[in-house]
Design goal:
Layout (H helix, E strand, L loop, with lengths): L2 H34 L4 E2 L2 E2 H21 L29
Antiparallel strand pairs: 1-2
Helix pairs in contact: 1-2
The structure holds zinc ion (ZN).
Length: 96
Amino acid sequence: MNSAEVLEKYKSVLFKAKIVSVIAIIFAIPKLFIGFTSYTTFLGISSNVALLLFTLGFVPYIVFFYSYWKCPSCNKFPGSGWARKECQHCHVMLKE
Ligand SMILES: [Zn+2]
């Protein structure tokens, strides 16, 4: 795999990471709202349902994090952070 392919593949990894993060955030909104205000419901969602949504929203995130967030070159976790420029294992460039 050449460096252009690595950059392209990692770009799609980050794009999917953003999608699962947005899903997790959206699903967490009712729980956060109920947690940080004195309201017991959010748009008709009770705190039990909010907790369920919160948990469900994190499932794709966790699955993605452990299964897909990998360096395209060495297949290991490249290290945390959205702005990461190189893999912490093989030091391949992940971003220009
Ligand atoms: Zn690597």
